[in-house]
Each structure stands twice: as C-alpha cells, then as structure tokens.
C-alpha cells in the first residue's frame, strides 16, 4: 500500500547505482565536443510513483530531450524511491554515480545555504508571488547557488504549501502545537521552524513517516496535500490543519561532474527541456491538489481552519537565525519586494 519505499542499506544502493551508471559515464566521458550531441543515457530518481506530478514532469522533459536530440539523449526515470531516500540520491548525484534527482529543496538546505531562502516560513504571499520569484532572476540565482557543492539546478517545481497534520487532536492555534512531536524534513531550518512553534522536531526521511505516525513515534507531520494523500499519511493522521507555514519548492538537480562533460549543445537541450516542463508541472500540480483533497476528505480526513497569524508571529527567531549574511538579507528583501 505504501507508495514510498523505505530506506535500503546504503552499500547496496551505491553498488547498484554505480553499476547502473557505468555505461552512461563511459559514453559521456571525453566524448563531448562543442556543437555536438553524443548518444547517452541519463538516470534520474524520485521518491514518488509514476503518476505523481514531479515524475510526470521529468517524463515530459525526457520526451522533449529525446525528440530534440534525435533520439541520442535519453533519460531513464527510477521512481517510487527505487534508488533510496532523497538524501541517498543527492549523494549519488554529487558523486556523479546518478545523473539527476528531483528532490525537495529542503533536502539541500544543509548542503548549499541559499536554498533555505524559499523555505522561510510565510515568505511567499501566494502561489503567484512564488512563481514571480522563481521564474525571475532570484530563481536563477538560487538555482546556480549549488554548483560549488556539485549540483546544477535545472528547474524549480511547485510543491504547494506545507501544513501540519496530527493523529489525536486538531491544531487550531499555535498553543495547540505546543509539545507535539512533529516529523520534519532533514533540515536545520525545518527543525527550527517547528521548535519556534513550541513543538519538538523529529527529522527523518519521507519513507519513514507513515510507520512513525501509525505507531505513535511522532504525533504529527507536515506536508502539502498531495504528499499527505499519496503517502497515505491521511489514514493515520486525520486532522489536516491548514497553517500553510511554508512553500518549499521542489528542485531538479543534475550532477555537476556529468554536466561538465557535456557539450554546450547537449547542455542546452537539457536546460531548455527542463524549463519547458515547468508550466506542464504546474498544471498537473493544481489538478493533483484538487484530486488529493477530495481523496483525503472522502477517506475521513478533516481539513481544519487555523489561526495563521499566531503561527506567523512566532517565526521571528527563524529569520533571526538563518537570514544572517548580506546575501541572504538581500534575497529576502528582494523577494518581499517582488510583486
Ligand atoms: C514533499 C516533497 C518530497 C519530500 C517530502 C518530505 O515533494 O520531495 O521528500 O515532502 O516531507 O512535499 O520529505
């Protein structure tokens, strides 16, 4: 029933990833000259299944890449967590053992610090505000900010807004969150955000959340509605409290090691196709949000209205702790000023 597979032992993962990528690496290595496109197969990973918007968007990109390269460049998608957790796939991409990964940008927070910016609580006023920022120079600046760490950012994908959901009682105000044990993503910012709410943060990978909620290891988790639905969390945590504390986007990563071996033509085909998959993804995302909301409500979940202002007012310590460098301060200011 669980669509997101649990973690697999690290050694096995790496062995299979290296084997899987050996042929592609051999084809690419040293072969690329400017103005040329050579045959190569790239591999990408996602924890979600084939019918999820992130996976369908990368499939769209793969189709475009194949067509625009006359069948020379192909992208093979390992969905459903087949290559491990997001942290596992990020490590593989860094090493160049895996070409690409679609992950939550929160999984990059501790790797390249600027990616924390779009996850700051209550930063975006609306989906339109988020799009205006990510589609413009700030989005571009943030996408390139992980290159030193070994990652080329190809695109931002929507991920709606994240809200809290609980097993035992609905959360309506900040006071209701006090003392709850809440699963968060493996990011210091996510931990700090939940602590600022007066709750206790338990960081873990997505694949472990269902069981942790079911067994009571945690009282709550937080996510967008499509994740809440597709990972079946709504079956074990019935109260979905719409505090909409963050709009952390998804990021599509390409291994810098592999990128640097590609010709400018090959890079352009990949970049353009990634970019062109964004509007398609947004359409799918909106449809999926509506569909997921329907499924969870029919499945017995309760969508709870929240006193958002009480949550927002508690977030100052998060900004004080993470928005410290002149660059971060400038980014936040420019985002707030974006219309
Ligand atoms: C979802 C993201 C997924 C993350 C998950 C999480 O789409 O990439 O793994 O949240 O909470 O919204 O870990």
CATH architecture tag of the largest domain: 3-Layer(aba) Sandwich
Oligomer: single chain
Which ligands, by name, code or SMILES, are bound? beta-D-glucopyranuronic acid
Top-tier CATH class of the largest domain: Alpha Beta
Spatial separation of the terminal alpha carbons: 43 Å
The poorly predicted ranges are: 5-34
Proportion of residues in β-strands: 15-25%
String of helices and strands:
HEHEHEHHEEHEHEHEHEEHHEHHH
How many β strands by DSSP? 11
The CATH topology of the largest domain turns out to be D-Maltodextrin-Binding Protein, domain 2
Q: Into how many domains do the coordinates divide?
A: 2
Q: Would you mind describing this structure in some detail?
A:
Strand 6, helix 7 and strand 7 form a beta-alpha-beta unit. It is built from 14 helices and eleven strands. The strands form three sheets. The chain has a five-stranded mixed β-sheet with strand order 2-1-3-10-4, sandwiched between helices. A four-stranded mixed β-sheet has the order 8-5-9-11. A two-stranded parallel sheet has the order 6-7. It has 339 residues and is of the alpha/beta class. The protein has two domains: 167 residues, 3-Layer(aba) Sandwich (D-Maltodextrin-Binding Protein, domain 2), CATH 3.40.190; 111 residues, D-Maltodextrin-Binding Protein, domain 2 (3-Layer(aba) Sandwich), CATH 3.40.190. Beta-D-glucopyranuronic acid binds next to strand 3.
């Amino acid at each position: 029933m669980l669509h997101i597979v649990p973690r697999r032992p690290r050694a096995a993962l790496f062995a299979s990833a290296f084997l899987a990528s050996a042929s592609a690496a051999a084809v690419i290595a040293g072969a690329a000259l400017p103005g040329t496109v050579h045959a190569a197969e790239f591999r990408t990973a996602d924890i979600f299944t084939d019918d999820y918007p992130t996976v369908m968007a990368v499939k769209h990109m793969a189709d475009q890449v194949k067509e625009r390269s006359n069948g020379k460049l192909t992208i093979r998608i390992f969905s459903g967590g087949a290559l491990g957790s997001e942290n596992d796939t990020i490590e593989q991409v860094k090493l160049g053992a895996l070409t690409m990964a679609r992950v939550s940008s929160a999984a990059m927070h501790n790797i390249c610090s600027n990616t924390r910016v779009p996850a700051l609580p209550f930063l975006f006023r609306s989906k339109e505000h988020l799009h205006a920022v990510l589609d413009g120079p700030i989005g571009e600046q943030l996408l390139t900010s992980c290159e030193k760490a070994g990652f080329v950012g190809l695109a931002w994908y929507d991920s709606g807004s994240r809200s809290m959901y609980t097993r035992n009682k609905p959360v309506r105000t900040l006071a209701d969150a006090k003392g709850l044990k809440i699963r968060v993503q493996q990011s210091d910012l996510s931990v700090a955000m939940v602590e600022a709410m007066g709750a206790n943060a338990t960081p873990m990978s997505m694949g472990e959340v269902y069981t942790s909620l079911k067994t009571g290891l945690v009282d709550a988790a937080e996510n967008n509605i499509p994740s809440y639905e597709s990972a079946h969390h709504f079956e074990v945590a019935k109260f979905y409290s719409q505090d909409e504390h963050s709009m952390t986007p998804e990021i599509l990563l390409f291994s810098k090691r592999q990128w640097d071996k590609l010709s400018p033509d090959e890079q352009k085909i990949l970049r353009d196709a990634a970019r062109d998959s964004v509007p398609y993804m947004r359409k799918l995302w909106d449809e999926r949000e509506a569909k997921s909301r329907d499924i969870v409500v029919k499945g017995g979940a309760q969508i709870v209205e929240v006193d958002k202002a009480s949550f927002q007012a508690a977030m100052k310590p998060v900004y004080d702790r993470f928005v410290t460098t002149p660059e971060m301060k400038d980014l936040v200011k420019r985002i707030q000023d974006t219309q």
